[in-house]
């Protein structure tokens, strides 16, 4: 019986240390622990969202073909963050690495206090949508029933997001 693969879209972010090197290490650990990285967006430099008095972020979206469940992907992503030295001090605070599960195939998942997919704030955040649009423009948001491209065109977030 063939293994079933799901495409998971992850958003990586870092605003401390050697940001691009940390993102590369995170991608390598995603490959080793979650699945085959099939697409990577460019790097995007973004002002901090939510808590703005901190260094700018580097963000990158990746597509991962995986046989894991969404919850297993989340747990592995959290373990990768920890391995790379992430310390959770405050909500939206500065961080060495952040790995968010944005989409998981066409699934809608709501496990209270644990996991919501699609990411409930993705459509409001340019720093998520710009890199995601680069690698998944025709993917459909399973709740809004719009393509990533359509959502990105209509986003009202005015945070500066620069493609590097």
Helices, strands, pairings?
Layout (H helix, E strand, L loop, with lengths): L5 E9 L4 H15 L2 E5 L3 E3 L10 E10 L3 H14 L14 E7 L4 E3 L3 E3 L8 H11 L11 H6 L7 E3 L1
Antiparallel strand pairs: 1-4, 1-5, 2-4, 3-4, 3-8, 6-7
Provide a brief overview of the structure.
The chain has helices at residues 19-33, 70-83, 126-136, 148-153, and strands at 6-14, 36-40, 44-46, 57-66, 98-104, 109-111, 115-117, 161-163. It is an alpha+beta fold and 164 residues long.
CATH superfamily: 7,8-Dihydro-6-hydroxymethylpterin-pyrophosphokinase HPPK
Number of domains: 1
Strand content is: 25-35%
User: Can you tell me the CATH architecture?
Assistant: 2-Layer Sandwich
Number of DSSP helical runs: 4
* Secondary structure category: alpha+beta
**CATH topology (level 3) name:** Alpha-Beta Plaits
Mean pLDDT: 92
N-C termini distance: 43 Å
Q: What is the string of helix and strand elements?
A: EHEEEHEEEHHE
**Low-confidence segments, ≥5 residues, pLDDT <50?**
none
Let me know the largest β-sheet.
6 strands, antiparallel
- Evaluate the radius of gyration: 15 Å
Helix content: 25-40%
Query: What is the total tally of β strands?
Result: 8
């Amino acid at each position: 019986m063939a293994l079933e693969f799901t495409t998971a879209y992850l958003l990586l972010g870092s605003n401390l240390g050697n940001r691009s090197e940390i993102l590369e290490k995170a991608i390598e650990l995603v490959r080793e622990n979650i699945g085959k990285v099939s697409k990577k967006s460019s790097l995007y430099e973004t002002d901090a969202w939510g808590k703005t008095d901190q260094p700018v972020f580097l963000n990158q979206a990746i597509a991962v073909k995986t046989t894991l469940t969404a919850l297993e992907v989340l747990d592995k992503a959290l373990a990768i963050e920890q391995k790379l030295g992430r310390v959770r001090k405050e909500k939206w605070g500065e961080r060495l690495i952040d790995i968010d599960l944005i989409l998981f195939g066409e699934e809608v998942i709501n496990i209270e206090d644990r996991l919501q997919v699609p990411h409930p704030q993705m459509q409001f955040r340019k720093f998520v949508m710009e890199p995601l649009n680069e690698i998944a423009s025709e993917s459909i948001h399973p709740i809004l029933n719009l393509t990533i491209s359509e959502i990105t065109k209509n986003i009202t977030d005015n945070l500066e997001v620069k493609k590097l």
